[in-house]
């Protein structure tokens, strides 16, 4: 701050009458303590206001209080408060807040008291801040030097100077600037209220704040400063900028700078410098433009009203207007049109051309407009037009003017045509035309020269205009300065004139006084001459008076004047000297102070380091003590174990003696066993010969079953088909970018994948049939029963047992303590061997050869059935292939219409095959699973299943609407995860309704058809649980029924449109337990969709699960079978229009992956399909990318968004080597079978709330490294040939690669965009579990898996356990003990745990124990509710538990913890009904993890382990 401070104080505070400095004598109850007037000693009154004070707890809860008007105090009763509350503060009302700079240096006083009985242990609570000031984002505290006493009045007093205050968190005196900033915008003032435990009541009174003002009746403020400020500052402490200046940063110690308003405003805003109250019709931050509705040059102060249509403000309706070469162009306000805004637009009426006239909105209903002049409403339908959807409008006068002008032009053209027809091509006419042409040419040249001259002078003109504006600005600035100087000069002249006048007046008064004295003397002389002098001394007095007058006239004051002038000169020199020395000393002091500040900062840093070191030392001492305690316990255990070993040693010696006695018996038994061994060896030789023959025959069977060549041929054939489909896709892509072609291409691609899958299934089935025939013929020809294999296994087991017995006997001497037991076992084994050998011989004799023939016939029949099924499927797929072959589109084909017709025809023909395709796939799957368990056949079946899953996944990615005509339906495959469906349901789909046409009678019939069925998911018996949607009068309703209670949600109308292109509305349904929300967004396919229409339902029932039987669930869309009766709320006619499904429970779903489809229109619905470059990985699949040509380095880059801490990002490998990049607990790892250990930098990068750039670089010299957000995350060196890498996988890897390389980490879940290979965009060649678009809500994690000592915790902001509270959670575990959930909020708490397999709920003072045990490894769902004082628990909608005795100990805090200590298992779908997360499960990715936690993963009995090092380097 500039300027200097002058303290207006003569005596110190508390004293008066300088220099005697007597102490003030003031009553402490009504004045500022010990403060009085410095001259008179009169006491100074203080500002006291006790209205509006209130008492608050740390959670900002108000404590009731009472204002005592007589004593002017506020009193609060606190004896009923919980004992956990140790802090209460009095909060000041607004009267004490705001700008309090004038209180700087003043005193703040108050009186407080804690009522109670000191003998009842009123102990002092830990010291806290006594007074707290808040303002300008800072908090200052004052701690009184002495604490109050219990049950006694405490007088608080603190001066508002910087040394009495500390800043929170720094604990050092604040600077003057900080205190001034807080006082300038004081937003909070708190006084400590609670000092002692066992306090009964608290009181506060006489809160005084000393201040000063420039006006008023009070006495001077003794300690309040007043500064003499420079021109650009004002207020007492120069804390504000003067008018015309501002601070650009808003800080009080920054300089005030001049407002930049081009001389058109006197003030501007602080911080921004935005000019206020611009003059001369200007506007803008610097008054640099004309305000709206005006035009001209703001700098020249020529802004005037736009003539649109008139130049009066009442009749000027332009938002903006510009001057273009002397012509004004108007941009009209809403409701006005025309070149000069002289008319009203459609939907408005009025006459802007009349004085005071304007345009007003029409007040007419839908389908009507109004007269543009009078505003009278009228129908838009012309006579005979019965189609209300055409939206006919009356032509305005624009159209009439246009028609009139066209008629005039037509007449003029007719006249010109007649003249041209009558004209003859004479020589004179030609001469005239040539002269006219020459004149036009000369005119053109002159115009061009004039234009060139204008252009050459334009730059100079612009420069002159800029210079002129600069000069004008300078002149304006100089004028302002001149005005200020002139004002100052006028003031000075006025002061001089006043001084001169006063001098003249003084001289005149002196002359008058002298004249009066002279007159008096003359009068006295005359009186003396008359002789009537009153006494004899009069002459002497007269003489003295004359002498005094003469002395006054003749006295010379020149020496005194000279002395005074000399004294003044010396004083000025002294002042200059003092200023010079003080300034120099001040600069030196400032330099030293700066050095001292630097040293103090260094000392402070060292003290912080020392404090950290001390903390580490204390922690180390604690750890050492803990370790010493453990060592002591270990020592005690060792001593105890030593004693036990001594006892065991004696026992062993006794057993050794007993073993020697038994040794002789053992030798006799050994001789007998040796003889048996000879017999066993002979038997083994015989079995070995049989084994050799069986092995040869088994190899023949295996070779016959494998048919490796056939499998390879089938795979090559599938690859060729895939290549042909890819070529077809490229051709169609090059032909057109129309959405219809794109939709058709997607469908063809999807069914191409299905065709390839079934081709592979057919090939594998044929191989299985041939292999089975060959194997069964060999078995039949050799007449070997199936039990031969059992005989082989039994004989090998017998031989192994014999060898084990022999080995046990040979090692008997070294294992004497166990010899007796083993000898007994050997005897038993011998007997068992004899019995087993005899049983094998009996089995060989009792073989039934008829059973063999039955088995052979059965296997052959099943193989034939598989062949027939695949044959039928191939016949239909061959028809599809023929249709595909007909589509021959080349990049240069111009006959695009025929191509599109062929594509459309092919898509329609696909409908003939789709309904039975899924059934055939299932039939092939069932048949192939019944083949013999030969390894090669099993692998082929496995591949078939994978291909089937690929086909179904591809079908789910088809984003084409399905057209329903009112008599059909689609039955989708029901969800597989019914456990998750019990608590959680999300559904996203698009709806479209066709436009209605026809006469009034048809429209009335269409109105009755506005009630339509949309979808149903639930039990086949519709009286049970379900979720559904229906239209009622074209308004979309959502319903769901849980345990007999139906909930209804109403949204809005569904948009009607044509089918090509169709306008769709988006519907989103979200359910969590019994709460649900439905959102309808209209016209979602347009660039600007409508505002969402929301409807929701909050259930209040105890049962809240959507429980359905897997064998009884159905999923109908658009309609339903005739043998099904929907519930009454959905029992409407079948749907007419288009429906497209997007997702179900965070997974992509399509109507084309149906189980059954009936009477579906083959005419598709086309819609706007925006290009989506972002992909969503569901966490279940992968994306495959081919590398192509050989390169010296591979750079795989992408931008990813994920909230998961674990996932496989990249897999790349060859035949014998592989590398993976994974995220594990947020850290990047590179793993490989050629690395001894994984490579990482141990930097946590994930989870992320925004997109992050990722790069994986592989160089031919053997170096690999990963960058995340331009920071290296992992690097390593390995041996490999980069040309061996032909492909790589993003977000996961196929199951065969995972099993082969023992990769166990979960696939990537998140969004991916901008995939590049060597900085070139790269398309995805194959994808599973990947969909277009980024589903942000699907990124949340609802499931988590816990291992021992792991937990998740979070501080949910509006989590409540008050009178109405609901907590629901799903869990699964096989352990008997463990904490599932623990939550606290203020003094309330909830605890859910497993104890001996039972679920125990503790909710405040209530405790419940379940009737059943729930450690069965299955999903269970628990809901705890609190309504007022009633608490209930319900598990799986049936188990309410039994209430137990419970000792409740209140806890403090605000957090929720999942899993802890011994809990091993999973949790899912945590729901707390808090407002910020209503209708949504808690996102566990936002929780803080401790220990080994896996999100989005949960297995039944064995937990998923992080990616281990079992894939380390193979040797």
Textual characterization of the structure:
- With 1515 residues, the protein is α+β, with helices and mostly antiparallel strands.
- The chain has 16 helices and 78 strands.
- The strands form 19 sheets. Strands 53, 54, 55, 56, 57, 58, 59, 60, 61, 62, 63 and 64 form a 12-stranded antiparallel β-sheet that branches. Strands 38, 40, 45, 46, 47, 48, 50 and 51 form an 8-stranded mixed β-sheet that branches.
- A hairpin with an 8-residue loop joins strand 28 and strand 29.
- Helix 3 packs antiparallel against helix 4, helix 5 runs parallel beside helix 7 (739-782) and helix 7 runs antiparallel to helix 10.
- The radius of gyration is 50 Å and the shape is extended.
- The model is unreliable at 1-9, 28-34, 382-391, 732-741, 847-852, 883-918, 927-935 and 1500-1515 (pLDDT under 50).
List keywords for this structure.
disordered C terminus; 1515 residues; alpha+beta; eight-stranded mixed sheet
Which helices and strands, and how do they pair?
Elements: E1 4-6, E2 15-16, E3 22-23, E4 31-36, E5 43-45, E6 47-48, E7 54-56, E8 62-63, E9 65-68, E10 73-77, E11 89-91, E12 107-115, E13 131-135, E14 138-142, E15 154-159, E16 166-167, H1 176-184, E17 186-192, E18 201-209, E19 226-228, E20 233-234, E21 240-241, E22 245-246, E23 257-258, E24 267-268, E25 275-276, E26 282-283, E27 289-290, E28 294-295, E29 304-305, E30 318-324, E31 327-332, E32 336-337, E33 343-344, E34 348-350, E35 359-361, E36 368-370, E37 377-379, H2 397-422, H3 427-530, H4 538-554, H5 558-706, H6 708-735, H7 739-782, H8 787-810, H9 819-845, H10 849-886, H11 896-910, H12 914-928, H13 935-956, E38 962-965, E39 969-972, H14 978-983, E40 984-994, H15 1000-1008, E41 1012-1019, E42 1026-1032, E43 1035-1042, E44 1045-1053, E45 1056-1057, E46 1065-1072, E47 1075-1081, E48 1093-1097, E49 1113-1117, E50 1136-1144, E51 1147-1148, E52 1154-1158, E53 1175-1186, E54 1193-1201, E55 1207-1213, E56 1218-1224, E57 1227-1232, E58 1252-1259, E59 1263-1268, E60 1271-1277, E61 1287-1290, H16 1295-1301, E62 1309-1317, E63 1320-1321, E64 1326-1332, ...
Parallel strand pairs: 40-45
Antiparallel strand pairs: 1-19, 2-3, 4-5, 6-18, 7-8, 7-11, 9-10, 10-18, 11-17, 12-15, 12-18, 13-14, 13-17, 14-16, 20-21, 22-23, 24-25, 26-27, 28-29, 30-31, 32-33, 34-35, 36-37, 38-50, 39-49, 39-52, 40-46, 40-50, 41-42, 41-49, 42-43, 43-44, 46-47, 47-48, 50-51, 53-61, 53-62, 53-64, 54-58, 54-62, ...
Helix pairs in contact: 3-4, 5-7, 5-8, 6-7, 7-10, 7-11, 7-13, 8-9, 10-11, 10-12
């Amino acid at each position: 701050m500039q300027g200097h401070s002058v303290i207006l104080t003569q005596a110190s505070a508390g004293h008066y009458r300088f220099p005697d400095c007597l102490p003030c004598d003031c009553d402490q109850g009504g004045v500022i303590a010990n403060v009085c007037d410095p001259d008179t000693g009169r006491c100074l009154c203080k500002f006291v206001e006790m209205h509006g004070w209130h008492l608050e707890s740390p959670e900002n809860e108000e404590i009731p209080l009472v204002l005592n008007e007589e004593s002017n105090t506020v009193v609060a009763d606190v004896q009923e408060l919980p004992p956990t509350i140790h802090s209460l503060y009095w909060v000041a009302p607004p009267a004490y807040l705001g700008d309090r700079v004038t209180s700087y240096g003043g005193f703040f006083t108050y009186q407080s008291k804690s009522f109670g009985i000191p003998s009842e242990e009123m102990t002092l609570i830990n010291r806290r801040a006594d007074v707290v000031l808040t303002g300008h984002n800072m908090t200052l505290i004052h701690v009184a030097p002495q604490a109050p006493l219990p049950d006694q009045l405490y007088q608080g007093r603190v001066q508002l100077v910087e040394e009495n205050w500390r800043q929170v968190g720094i604990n050092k005196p604040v600077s003057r600037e900080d205190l001034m900033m807080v006082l300038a915008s004081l937003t909070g003032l708190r006084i400590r209220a609670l000092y002692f435990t066992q306090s009964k009541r608290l009181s506060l009174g006489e809160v005084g704040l000393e201040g000063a003002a420039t006006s008023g009746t009070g006495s001077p403020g003794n300690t309040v400063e007043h500064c003499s400020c420079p021109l650009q500052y004002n207020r007492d402490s120069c804390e504000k900028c003067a008018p015309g200046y501002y601070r650009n940063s808003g800080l009080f110690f920054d300089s005030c700078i001049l407002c930049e308003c081009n001389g058109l405003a006197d003030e501007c805003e602080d911080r921004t410098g935005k000019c206020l109250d611009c003059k001369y019709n200007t506007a803008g931050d610097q008054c640099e433009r004309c305000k709206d509705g005006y035009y001209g040059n703001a700098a020249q102060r020529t802004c005037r009203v736009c003539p649109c249509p008139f130049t009066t403000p009442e009749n000027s309706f332009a938002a903006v207007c510009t001057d273009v070469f002397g012509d004004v162009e108007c941009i009209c306000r809403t409701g006005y049109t025309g070149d000069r805004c002289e008319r009203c637009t459609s939907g408005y009426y009025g006459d802007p051309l009349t004085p005071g006239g304007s345009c007003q909105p029409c007040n007419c209903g839908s389908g009507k407009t109004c007269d543009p002049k009078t505003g009278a409403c009228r129908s838009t339908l012309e006579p005979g037009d019965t189609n209300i959807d055409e939206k006919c409008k009356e032509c305005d006068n624009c159209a009439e003017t246009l028609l009139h002008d066209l008629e005039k032009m037509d007449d003029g053209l007719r006249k010109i045509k007649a003249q041209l027809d009558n004209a003859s091509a004479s020589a004179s006419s030609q001469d005239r035309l040539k002269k006219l042409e020459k004149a036009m040419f000369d005119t053109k040249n002159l115009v061009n020269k004039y234009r060139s001259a204008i252009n050459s002078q334009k730059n100079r003109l612009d420069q002159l205009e800029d210079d002129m504006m600069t000069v004008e600005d300078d002149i304006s600035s100089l004028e302002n300065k001149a005005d200020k100087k002139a004002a100052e000069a006028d003031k000075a002249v006025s002061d001089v004139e006043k001084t001169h006048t006063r001098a003249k007046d003084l001289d005149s008064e002196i002359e008058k006084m002298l004249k009066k004295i002279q007159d008096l003397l003359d009068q006295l002389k005359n009186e003396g001459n008359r002789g009537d002098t009153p006494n004899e001394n009069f002459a002497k007095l007269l003489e003295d008076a004359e002498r005094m007058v003469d002395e006054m006239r003749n006295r010379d004051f020149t020496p005194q004047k000279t002395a005074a002038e000399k004294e003044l000169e010396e004083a000025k020199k002294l002042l200059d000297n003092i200023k010079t020395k003080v300034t120099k000393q001040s600069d030196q002091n400032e330099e030293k102070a700066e050095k001292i500040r630097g040293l103090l900062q260094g000392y402070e840093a060292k003290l912080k380091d020392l404090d950290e070191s001390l903390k580490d030392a204390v922690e180390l001492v604690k750890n050492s003590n803990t370790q010493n305690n453990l060592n002591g316990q270990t020592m005690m255990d060792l001593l105890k174990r030593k004693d036990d070993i001594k006892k065991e040693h004696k026992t062993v010696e006794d057993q050794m003696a007993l073993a020697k006695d038994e040794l002789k018996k053992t030798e006799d038994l050994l001789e007998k066993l040796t003889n048996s061994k000879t017999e066993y060896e002979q038997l083994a030789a015989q079995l070995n010969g049989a084994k050799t023959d069986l092995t040869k025959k088994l190899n023949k069977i295996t070779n016959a079953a494998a048919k490796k060549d056939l499998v390879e041929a089938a795979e090559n054939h599938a690859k060729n088909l895939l290549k042909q489909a890819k070529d077809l896709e490229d051709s169609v892509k090059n032909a057109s970018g129309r959405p219809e072609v794109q939709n058709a291409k997607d469908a063809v691609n999807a069914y191409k994948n299905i065709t390839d899958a079934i081709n592979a299934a057919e090939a594998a089935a044929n191989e299985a049939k041939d292999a089975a025939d060959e194997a069964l013929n060999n078995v039949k020809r050799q007449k070997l029963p199936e039990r031969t294999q059992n005989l082989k296994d039994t004989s090998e087991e017998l031989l192994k047992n014999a060898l084990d017995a022999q080995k046990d006997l040979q090692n008997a001497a070294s294992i004497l303590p166990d010899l007796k037991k083993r000898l007994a076992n050997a005897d038993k084994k011998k007997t068992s061997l004899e019995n087993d050998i005899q049983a094998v011989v009996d089995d060989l004799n009792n073989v039934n050869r008829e059973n063999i023939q039955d088995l052979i016939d059965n296997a052959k029949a099943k193989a034939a059935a598989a062949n027939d099924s695949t044959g039928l499927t191939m016949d239909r797929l061959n028809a599809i292939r023929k249709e595909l072959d007909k589509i021959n589109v080349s990049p240069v084909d111009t006959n695009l219409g025929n191509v599109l017709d062929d594509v459309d025809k092919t898509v329609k023909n696909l409908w003939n095959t789709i309904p039975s395709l899924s059934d055939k796939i299932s039939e092939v799957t069932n048949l192939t699973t019944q083949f013999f368990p030969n390894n090669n056949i099993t692998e082929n079946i496995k591949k078939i299943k994978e291909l089937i899953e690929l086909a179904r996944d591809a079908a789910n990615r088809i984003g084409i609407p399905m057209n329903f005509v009112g008599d059909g339906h689609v039955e989708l495959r029901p969800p597989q995860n019914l456990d998750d469906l019990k608590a959680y349901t999300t559904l996203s789909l698009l709806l479209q309704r066709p436009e209605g046409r026809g006469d009034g009678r048809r429209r009335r019939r269409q109105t009755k058809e506005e009630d339509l069925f949309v979808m149903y998911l639930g039990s086949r018996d519709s009286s049970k649980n379900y979720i559904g949607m229906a239209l009622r009068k074209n308004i979309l309703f959502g319903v769901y029924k849980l345990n007999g209670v139906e909930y209804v949600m109403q949204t809005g109308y569904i948009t009607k449109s044509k089918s090509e292109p169709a306008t769709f509305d988006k519907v989103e349904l979200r359910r969590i337990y019994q709460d649900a929300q439905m959102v309808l967004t209209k016209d979602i396919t347009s660039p600007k969709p409508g505002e969402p229409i929301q409807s929701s339902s909050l259930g209040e029932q105890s049962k809240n699960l959507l429980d359905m039987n897997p064998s009884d669930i159905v999923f109908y869309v658009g309609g339903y079978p005739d043998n099904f009766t929907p519930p009454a709320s959905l029992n409407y006619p079948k749907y007419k229009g288009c429906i497209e499904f997007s997702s179900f429970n965070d997974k992509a779903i399509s109507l084309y992956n149906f189980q059954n489809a009936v009477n579906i229109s083959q005419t598709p619905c086309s819609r706007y399909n925006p290009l989506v470059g972002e992909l969503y990985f569901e966490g279940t699949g992968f994306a495959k990318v081919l590398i192509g040509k050989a390169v010296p380095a591979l750079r795989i880059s992408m931008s990813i968004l994920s909230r998961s801490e674990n996932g496989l990002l990249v897999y790349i490998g060859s035949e014998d080597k592989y590398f993976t990049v994974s995220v594990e607990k947020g850290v990047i790892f590179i793993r490989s079978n050629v690395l001894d250990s994984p490579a990482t930098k141990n930097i946590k990068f994930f989870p992320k709330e925004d997109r992050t750039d990722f790069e994986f670089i592989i160089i031919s010299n053997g170096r690999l490294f990963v960058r995340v957000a331009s920071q290296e995350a992992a690097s390593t060196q390995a041996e490999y040939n980069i040309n061996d890498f032909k492909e790589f996988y993003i977000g996961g890897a196929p199951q065969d690669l995972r099993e082969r390389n023992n990769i166990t980490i979960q696939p990537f879940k998140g969004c991916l965009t901008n995939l590049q290979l060597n900085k070139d965009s790269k398309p995805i060649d194959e994808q599973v579990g990947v969909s277009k678009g980024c589903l942000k809500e699907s990124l949340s994690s609802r499931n988590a898996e816990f291992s021992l000592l792991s937990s998740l915790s979070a501080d949910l902001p509006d989590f409540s356990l008050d009178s109405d509270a609901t907590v629901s959670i799903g869990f699964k575990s096989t352990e008997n003990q463990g904490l599932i959930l623990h939550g606290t909020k203020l003094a309330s708490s909830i605890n859910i745990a497993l104890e001996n397999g039972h679920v125990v709920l503790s909710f405040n003072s209530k405790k419940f124990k379940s009737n059943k045990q729930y450690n069965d490894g299955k999903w269970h769902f628990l809901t705890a509710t609190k309504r007022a004082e009633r608490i209930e628990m319900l598990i799986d909608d049936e188990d309410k538990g039994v209430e137990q005795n419970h000792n409740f100990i209140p806890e403090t805090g605000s957090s929720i913890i999942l899993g802890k200590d011994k809990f091993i298992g999973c949790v899912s779908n945590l729901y707390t009904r808090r407002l910020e997360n209503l209708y949504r499960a808690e996102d566990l990715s936002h929780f803080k993890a401790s220990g080994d936690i896996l999100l989005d993963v949960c297995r039944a009995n064995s937990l998923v382990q992080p990616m281990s090092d079992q894939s380390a380097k193979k040797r």
